[in-house]
Specification:
Blueprint (H helix, E strand, L loop, with lengths): L3 H19 L3 E7 L4 H16 L4 E7 L4 H13 L4 E5 L3 H13 L4 E4 L10 E5 L1 H15 L4 E7 L5 H14 L5 E8 L4 H13 L6 E4 L2 H14 L6 E6 L2 H10 L4 E4 L4 H12 L7 E4 L3 E2 L4 H124 L6 H31 L8 E4 H18 L3 E6 L5 E4 L1 H17 L6 E13 L2 E12 L6 H6 L22 H11 L3 E7 L3 E9 L23 H15 L19 E5 L3 H11 L4 E5 L2 H11 L3 E5 L7 H9 L9 E5 L4 H9 L4 E4 L4 H25 L11 H16 L8 H8 L3 H12 L3 H19 L4 H7 L5 H12 L3 H10 L1
Parallel strand pairs: 1-2, 1-3, 3-4, 4-5, 5-11, 6-7, 6-8, 8-9, 9-10, 14-16, 20-21, 20-22, 22-23, 23-24
Antiparallel strand pairs: 10-12, 13-15, 16-17, 17-19, 18-19
Amino acid sequence: MKRYIPLAFLFTISLTGILHAQKSTYTIGFSQCVREDFWRETMEREMEIEVSLYPELELIKRDAGGNSLQQIEDVKELLKMGIDLLIISPNESAPLTPVVEEVFGKGIPVVVIDRQISSDAWTAFIGADNYEIGFQAGQYAASILAGTGSILEIAGLKGSSPAMARHNGFVDAIEAFPDVRIDHFLTGEWNWAEGKQVMDSALSEGIRPDLVFSHNDFMAAGAYEASLKHGVADDFFFIGIDGMAEGGIQYVIDGKLDATWLYPTGGDKAIDVARRILLKLPYDRVNNLQTLLIDQRNANTLKLQNQQLLSLQQKIAQQRDIAGSYREQISNLRVGAMVISAFTILVILLILLVIRAYRGKQKANKVLEAQNIEIEKQNEKLQRISEQLEIATQQKLRFFTNISHEFRTPLTLMTGPLESLLQQHDLVDEKRHQLEMIYRNALRLLRLINQIMDFRKLENDKMVLHAGQYDMVKFLMRIKENFDPLAEKKRIHFTLECSVDSQELWFDPDKMDKVMFNLLSNAFKFTHEGGMITIGFGTRDKEIGNEKKQVAEITVTDDGRGMSEEHIKNIFERFYQIEQQREGNYFPGTGLGLSLSKGLIELHSGTIDVSSSKGEGTVFYVCLPLGDAYLKEEEKVLVTDPDHFDLESFQLISEELGYFTELSDPEVSTQAVSTSSTKREYLILIVEDNPDLLNYMREILATNYEVLTAKDGKEAWETVQRDLPDIVVSDVMMPFMDGLELTQHIKGDMRTCHIPVIMLTAKTSIENKLEGLEAGADSYIPKPFNERHLLVRVRKLLEMRKVLGDHFREYLSFEAIENPVGHMDQRFLERTSRSISDHLQDLEFGVEELSREIGMSRVHLYRKIKQITGMSVSEYIRSVKLMHAKGLIRKREMSISEVAYASGFANPSYFTKCFRDQFDQSPSDYLAQFGNE
């Protein structure tokens, strides 16, 4: 059956090709802007008659009615319609030039008719020579004035090329007659009404010319009517231009004009030239139409000729319509025959296809029936799995909620005694600091647990409002007071702006407190020092349903980092978090805060929305209804003291503020810290963004080591380059630069690659550990960590470095130790040794010269060699020279003195002393020992 399908397809394609082949037409777009109806009708009639002679041509007309802007839009519309050629009669030259250039620039031929544009971006021009017409009119005026007289000129549209050309020709002609002058020059906008108006104004001002020259017959006729009104029509000569049958010719016959000049429309010529261009036949680029003086001598004759021509054109049009009808009938018959043939073949093919399809359907039904049975089984299986997953999810959430609930008891038992201890006045500062840190983090954990409990209550519809009538302005002032210390610490401009002095609202202060805490906490997290945060409050109209209602609106505005559109769409989804690590900030969280806030606001029948732009800040909008109509009776509580807000979370907010404040505490600096004035042997750098944990680790390590601290990877990298610590203990998740990137910087830099790095993080999966080790970390300690574990790990890494240094000092090589130093350290030592060997004969080559050779400062070179080998730079240079000397002695080709000089020693005695100090035997003993071997 498949062989029938290509046959039908090929037949259809062939039929389509025949039909398209019959329609080989060219589309001509015609845009005109003629104000005079007779002129427009004459041009269109000439074009239509000419187009009817050529079946391959199609004409699309647009008339702008004397409006240049409309004509520009008409041309653009024709361009979109896909015309093959544009004929345009521009209303004005300059305004129409750009759009004509656009058409011409797209490779579409342009025929300009009647008047020119301001550039050469056209294919052909058709029109009378306006300058020549103006010149002839000037000569005629001088003639009938007998060489002397005053002229009033009424020009066409300002800026129009015909108006300028006709005026220039007229002026040039009368220059030969000094006593003939143009005393008055007016503008008539090409129409009868304007011509009459300007002439009426001139006559009212007492102007009495001998001759009125108008740039077209309609303005001339209007001027005549104005003169007739003033009773002076017979005192002047009136001449015009155009010579149309129903215009200038009739005006001459009626005695309104003394003369006019024929200005042919050129419609038939435009179509003829356009056809030649489209068919690539020869044509003239400039086609000037001939003019003719019309006066009382030939006006009647010309009118009669025009009437006969019009009658002939009408007959031609009728014949054209009849011929077109015949052509259409023949075309329809031909197409009909083809369609019938095609239809017959298609019917046969369809019958065969139906038979084949029926058989295929029977087979397909059997296959589908079997598939449906299988799909039903799979759906049942998927439904069972989905139900099991939902049950498991709910069980996990219930278990997690129960565990969270159980945490509250031990946390209470922790915070209670801690509060009692902190109230004691005899605590030493160190102990008080440690207890405050424990108490602060216990409260933080309690707040997170409370948040989880609230979230579960919202999910299970068990969250109950206890709403009373409070002053929202005072409530927000109380909220602001709690955040003021943090704003001052971070040098953030924090303000409350209320459009009203007070506003009574029904709300649950505990729930609203949690909402405001979440919104402001986020604002402070994502706003840099010196930024701005504003709480706004007022009332406004909001469309709710199909009506507008007044609501109270709270806004929280910051100029922080902002969010992208993708984050805005999901910001209120539960567990959704914005990953800020690679953008220079990492702010960990549960992803519940904003989701919980949305649920609490919706309990108040309110709404919460957000608007934000990346890099420009964020605004949260909270809208609450006025009045208590949205509350159930059991949700209302009696408020005895509206100025008192008994909020459990205020204490949590205060303690949390202490936590956040320390994040930006400038006192947590990179200065070395020690609990003793005795200088420690090793320098340790701790990198951690949590200030409590940073202080805790600093206290642990400061007992035995000099300690530097940094709050993020960027600050840590600057410290490493400056101070070259003996070991780095770093968290992984940090702002600006994380621990992995910091490790890569340390291990990838020749100056610092020898420094051991211990990763300290809450990410404990094997994948995370491998990621840290691949970055170059020497050890990995998971959180929470044991204090002794950290101390032992630091001590062992430092001891290993010391053992390596002692081994190298004794043997001047790491060859006997497996994986003693990193690849970059090995390359560094090889390069340093090679540089020393290359300058053995240079007795002035020392530490300063070696540091320049290696491209490292003297201090960095000293610290790096000291940390790798346990030697000073001078000791290392001397050791390399001694190793070279041992090689020369073994060759037995030089005396001991010669070996000393060849190894860079200026004094053989000093060489012998250094050799004995290094190898516990003199060069002579070593030579003897080597010789005996």
